[in-house]
Fold each of these.
Amino acid sequence: MREKRCCWLIVVLLVVCSVVLNAANQKTAVFQGTTDEVFNAAVKVAQVNWVISFMDRPTLTFSFPVPPTFASNGLLCGVSMEKESDGVHVTMHLQCGASHRADKVAAQFFKDVQDELAKLAKQKH
């Protein structure tokens, strides 16, 4: 009986840990612009640096693989977006896994998207 409780406890702990780690792996940034502007900027950045393996414009999602390096395995990054209720901002989620390299990819990706949106804003004016 005690072994059964121990097994259930381990299963529950594993489920809780996987949910927490999954939430921690997701990087989020908020951008100013329409969903089309932010989506197009993000796709352009991904196409310049990687190869987009999946894209679905109606759901504002796409994914791209980051090739392995000598020091790390490859990553599969998924991007999703949602329009904020204010109608001016778009929240972007990037999920690449939990590693130092994933953090670097996310930081660079978000910076490049912001730069692309800044270029677009300058072209408008």
Amino acid sequence: MRNVIASLAVVCTLAVSVRAAETEIHFGCGTQDAGVNIYTEGERVYFRLENPAGFQNFPIFSGTLTPRTMNMVEASLRDLKVFDVNIVVASWEKAQCKTGKNFLLQCRGAGKIEQPENSGLRTYGISTSIEHQENMDVSADVVRINWGIDTAENDYRHHYISFPFTQDRCWVR
């Protein structure tokens, strides 16, 4: 019943796509291993990952793994090692963000990686998507939090990572 009420609250709260500058955002998803919160504070939208296992539980690659993509995975292992911390925080100006129904959010443009400090990495966007997955035994809606992370310009690589959660593991305030 609580999940039904939470789902209705999400639909009512985020029913129409609006600029984040015009509204407050506070939703999150989590498991026993890690949790993500996305919220507004002042004139910024924050992404906060709480991950007690650090880098051992940090996604390093989203996509199909093939022999050709192994170089990207190896680069991710090196580049994203800086996230071997319990808390990761990134933010964007509210004006760069918009929200939609059912946990949908998009922030485009240069953001700031606030924790860990001096990471040497940059971020140019975060978005969420909802995917319906179904097989013969079960169906579920998955909320996917997608984050783009870039290395320095002189040795540029783009990393696209994603944090998937079944919708029953997500909430909105």
Amino acid sequence: MNKKITILMLLSLVFLVVFGAAYTYGLFHSDISDEVQADVADWVIKVNNTEVTNGTTQQFTINDVHFEGDSNVREGKFAPGTTGYFDLAIDAAGTEVAVKYEILIDEESFGNDFIKLTGVTLLSGNTFQKINDSKYVGVIPLQGRVVNTLRIGIEWENNDNNNEQDSLIGTQSNPDLEIPVTVNLIQYLGEELS
């Protein structure tokens, strides 16, 4: 009879082990499926009231230049010996992340070797850094967000050795001064500005 009890106990133990393993497998093998929804941060940025949401790099041709007075040049006109400026406003109010911007100004494409960039100043917004003569970088933080407005100064140097090229520009009917500016916009993650 001892042998029968031992076999019965062993069979019971095997049954419990098999049942326990099957139950444990069932606990950890449940198939659960569901849709995960996450709110994605908005990315809506305007540069000089032009939405640049579709791309992070935008090239602008600035032709809205304000010229500073010179008694020898008609008001609102640009000529050798005068200075001017244009403003670049970066509005990230519709963006829900901090934004890093890079401004690239291609002086060589001004169309005249004596039209020079005289400097970039911040009129409103957060700080920015000059990286080199044609690259400026800044951050628009998530908190305390305002429109960053940069004023870019230009000067048409009066040089007698350039009179022929100056005259060529001046004799065109309604010549436009086009200043190519590239704006790169990316999410700022706290990296060093460069």
